[in-house]
Write a structure and sequence with these properties.
Elements: H1 2-24, H2 37-50, H3 52-55, H4 59-95, H5 101-132, H6 135-155
């Protein structure tokens, strides 16, 4: 009887050890998540507007950054809506009993063309963002990013040793 309980306990501990590994697999990413190019662009624009005094932005630069942010958000909403509609059409086509493969392949091609176009628009928006700031402002922005990163690392329990 004791041997059976002993084996059950060992089995339980082994299962718990195996299930707990995915928790630690993320490493340091849990405190500094990366979400893609759109979050990078919008985050940088937000950071620049938040630190406008330190960067000494002109009124024209502030206006250009706000317009760029608005246009990027507008493009993202339109792209996401078009991609979601195509995804819905693809899923709907898969429910048909005789699946029309040629039509679905065309829809898949359209969907990934839209994703490619979205990425190109985001790269162009990032290039426009870089053109708005002067060289001195870019250098100051780099210092501010470094300070922000150090502050995040100090507050993150995953970075503490």
């Amino acid at each position: 009887m004791k041997l059976r309980t002993y084996y059950a306990l060992i089995g339980y501990v082994a299962v718990m050890c195996l299930l707990s590994q995915p928790v630690f697999a993320g490493g340091r990413k849990s405190c500094d998540s990366k979400k893609g190019l759109e979050h990078k662009i919008l985050g940088k624009i937000h950071f620049v507007l938040q630190n406008e005094d330190e960067l000494k932005l002109t009124a024209e630069q502030k206006y250009d950054l706000k317009e760029l942010k608005k246009n990027v958000k507008r493009q993202l909403i339109q792209s996401k809506a078009a991609i979601d509609l195509l995804t819905l059409d693809i899923k709907d086509g898969l429910w048909n009993d005789p699946i029309d493969v040629d039509t679905l392949n065309g829809l898949v091609d359209q969907k990934y063309e839209l994703k490619k176009q979205k990425s190109k628009e985001l790269v162009q928006a990032y290039a426009n963002f870089k053109r708005i700031l002067t060289a001195d402002q870019k250098a100051e922005l780099k210092k501010l990013y470094k300070q922000e990163k150090n502050q995040k690392q100090a507050n993150c329990p995953m970075w503490k040793k």
